[in-house]
Amino acid sequence: MSQASFNIPNQPGASFRADVNAALQSLATSSAGPSAPGNPTANMFWADTANQVLKIRDTTNAAWITLCALDEFVHAGVPQNSRSENYVLTLDDANRHIFHPGSDPTPRVFTIPSNSAAPFPVGTIIGFVNDSGGAVTIGITSDTLVWPPTGATGSRTLSSCGIASIMKVTATKWMITGTGVS
Prior knowledge:
Blueprint: H1 13-28, E1 45-48, E2 53-57, E3 64-69, E4 80-82, E5 87-88, E6 97-100, E7 108-112, E8 125-130, E9 136-140, E10 144-147, E11 152-153, E12 156-170, E13 173-181
């Protein structure tokens, strides 16, 4: 973790070398630290360790833009969250899939919380895989879940061996599609 100024002043050799090494270390660690680096420049990266997110400075050098979670780059494919109990989605489930394993034959309810409880960004996609003999209800609280084939709203059932995806299309509206959805 390192943050240093990239503006190196004229100075004697050892001090100059130390400042250059500190600036290079900042580059190597994406200016990692719990607070924004001093003297940011347009398109500069910052690994915000306080919030565990990678940010980039906008092109006008006026604001930081969050790109992704710091651990997001280590995932290959769509990370899995295996659940053998009723479950309410959390922000950590964004762009992941919820798996109901075959070892749990009990029907379950996986619930999409309200926007006020978990403000997923518009465009968030969450997958569901039901490998169990028991059906999974994909529930919705106060927001709206729309099934495009019919335009019906409300909770949906995901049958055994079913796969579904939901996408958030407005602050309080999700759409669902998949195989085995009714």
